[in-house]
């Protein structure tokens, strides 16, 4: 039996006019800024004077990702469609894909199989131009920094302390470290520089945490770009850059309305990486979803629960005043066997011993959600054809020992119908589940105590080591008055440790913080661990090699 690819399924679909999707949420045609027939921007000011509906917020997270695949976005979309099938007025809130992963390893990132958001090609390629606007705002600030130095440097910026980097929405290792300003005196001041991928830019992080354009402009102004020769911080507001930066982002700040294959409305907006930033769609989109969906909003946080969910709960929920009503933790039998030491090519064979060895990774994430954050949770097993009944029963029994039910998810193959059991458990949890939501740390704790709390409670580490560079950076931020902000850990997504090769649920390890950076506009401190970097590279055979377009404009190879 031949299976259709994700893009073939998407191209065979018959989406509804976006005005019809908007009408489900009470939007008139005048409320929508149309980008063709199937996507539109919606002004967040429509939330003003709108009564809250009391919609429940569902967070989807997962185990640490593996090459075997988990299907977190697919599950998020599928359970939303299942809730819609059960007669619930539901809305999905997702991040926008970055072109880096689209052309790198992952390919498309709009769900999969029969649980996708449409138009799949547009969402993955440029979409409504939000990321380009974010890149333009980032690079405008970079240009104004160097121009200020070139024009006399009235602020006394020390070029060797500049922390602000340029960005591009592409995996390009060649741009990690560059020297610019070469040439004649009029061509600028030569200095070391570099590029980050756009989704790692502080602009993206602040954009996704802003409540409106005024808040965004204030956040842009608070960005620290470097230091003077007297070691005083210099901000974007000092350079008079934040007004123009916010102007570039005016339209991008409006959430993008699209739909699932089954016509469930979806906001797709913003996209910070979870292994570098906070890994969640915009606060504005989430709040709009909660304002206009009558019953349920299903959202996701990037990578495993140790990264995306931790940051969603400790950073986004805290800043935005959100409280999830239930959490879905996605896993696959295949991924758990991979955590148990099985090679990728051998994952189709039943292996209860390896599964039992890999299960602690899932159980750690379950414990974090239910015991650290005290939220009701369900484990969604994204079922593959080769999963055996014995394997599924083992996962279910281990999760039930922690008081958490397991629901099989077959949304990839069946769409919303394959997520009915999961959706019913989500409804039950929202109505009867124990919810005593709390954070992993309090803001008034010293910075190091917050880092320690995340490392020990969430990762299971014995403690934290700091390089001299990290020690100096954290001490500087405390002295500057930033001791009371959240901590954003930049860590590999593949492991609970800071070493991507350590699978399962390791014990007896420490996390090493090698450096720390201040994201004053976003409102948090970033701690860099392991080999994490802000500009990925392309693999030996990037996904771009498989993407093509024919004479009729039909795209192929996009996952």
Number of helical segments with 4 or more residues: 18
Task: Label the overall shape.
Answer: globular
- Strand count, sense and closure of the main sheet? 12 strands, mixed
Mean pLDDT: 95
Q: How many strands?
A: 24
The termini sit apart by 19 Å
Rg over CA atoms: 23 Å
Estimated share of beta-strand residues: 15-25%
Q: Structural class of the helices, strands and pairings?
A: alpha/beta
What percent of the residues sit in helical stretches (DSSP H or I)? Answer: 25-40%
What is the subunit organization of this protein? single chain
Q: What ranges have pLDDT less than 50 throughout 5 or more consecutive residues? A: none
Notes on the structure:
It is built from 18 helices and 24 strands. Helix content is 35%, strand content 18%. The protein has 559 residues and is an alpha/beta fold. The chain starts with 5 loop residues before the first helix and ends with a strand. Strands 1, 2, 3, 4, 5, 6, 13, 14, 15, 16, 17 and 18 form a 12-stranded mixed sheet that branches. A 4-stranded mixed sheet has the order 19-21-22-20. Strands 7-10 form a two-stranded parallel sheet.
């Amino acid at each position: 039996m031949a299976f259709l690819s994700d893009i073939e399924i998407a191209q065979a679909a018959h989406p509804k006019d976006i005005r019809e999707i908007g009408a489900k949420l009470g939007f008139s045609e005048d409320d929508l800024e149309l980008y063709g027939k199937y996507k539109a921007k919606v002004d967040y000011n429509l939330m003003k004077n709108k009564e809250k509906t009391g919609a429940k917020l569902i967070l989807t997270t997962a185990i640490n990702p593996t090459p075997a695949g988990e299907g977190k976005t697919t599950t998020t979309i599928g359970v939303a469609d299942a809730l819609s099938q059960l007669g619930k007025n539901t809305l999905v809130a997702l991040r926008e894909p970055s072109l880096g992963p689209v052309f790198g390893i992952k390919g498309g990132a709009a769900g999969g199989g029969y649980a996708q958001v449409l138009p799949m090609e547009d969402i993955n390629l440029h979409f409504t131009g939000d990321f380009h606007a974010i890149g333009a705002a980032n690079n405008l600030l970079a240009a104004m920094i160097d121009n200020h130095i070139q024009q006399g440097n009235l602020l006394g910026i020390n070029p060797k302390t500049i922390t602000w980097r340029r960005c591009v929405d592409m995996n390009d290792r060649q741009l990690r470290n560059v020297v610019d300003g070469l040439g004649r005196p009029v061509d600028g001041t030569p200095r070391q520089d570099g590029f980050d991928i756009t989704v790692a830019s502080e602009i993206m992080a602040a954009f996704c945490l802003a409540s409106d354009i005024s808040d965004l402009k204030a956040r842009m102004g608070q960005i620290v770009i470097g230091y003077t020769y007297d070691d005083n911080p210099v901000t974007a507001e000092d350079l008079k850059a934040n007004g123009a930066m916010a102007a570039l982002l005016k339209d991008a700040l409006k959430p993008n309305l699209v739909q699932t294959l089954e016509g469930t409305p979806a906001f797709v907006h913003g996209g910070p990486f979870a292994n570098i930033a906070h890994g969640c769609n915009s606060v504005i989109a989430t709040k709009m979803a909660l304002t206009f969906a009558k019953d349920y909003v299903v959202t996701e946080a990037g990578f495993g629960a140790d990264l995306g969910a931790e940051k969603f709960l400790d950073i986004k929920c805290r800043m935005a005043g959100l409280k999830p009503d239930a959490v879905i933790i996605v896993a696959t039998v295949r991924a758990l066997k991979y955590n148990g030491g099985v090679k990728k090519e051998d994952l189709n064979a039943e292996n209860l011993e390896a599964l039992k060895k890999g299960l602690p990774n899932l159980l750690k994430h379950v414990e974090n959600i239910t015991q650290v954050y005290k939220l009701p949770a369900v484990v969604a097993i994204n079922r593959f054809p080769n999963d055996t009944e014995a394997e599924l029963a083992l996962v279910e029994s281990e999760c039930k020992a922690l008081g958490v039910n397991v629901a099989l998810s077959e949304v990839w193959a069946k769409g919303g119908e394959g997520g009915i059991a999961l959706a019913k458990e989500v409804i039950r949890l929202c109505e009867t589940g124990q919810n005593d939501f709390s954070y992993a740390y309090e803001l008034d704790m010293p910075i190091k105590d917050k880092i320690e709390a995340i490392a020990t409670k969430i990762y299971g580490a014995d403690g934290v080591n700091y390089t001299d560079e990290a020690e100096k950076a954290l001490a500087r931020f405390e002295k500057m008055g930033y001791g009371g902000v959240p901590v954003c850990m930049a860590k590999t997504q593949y492991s609970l440790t800071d070493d991507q090769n350590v699978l399962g649920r390791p014990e007896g390890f420490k996390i090493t913080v090698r450096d720390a950076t201040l994201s004053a506009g976003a409102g948090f401190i970033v701690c860099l661990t392991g080999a994490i970097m802000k500009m990925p590279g392309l693999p030996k055979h990037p996904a771009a090699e498989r993407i093509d377009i024919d004479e009729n404009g039909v795209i192929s190879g996009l996952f």
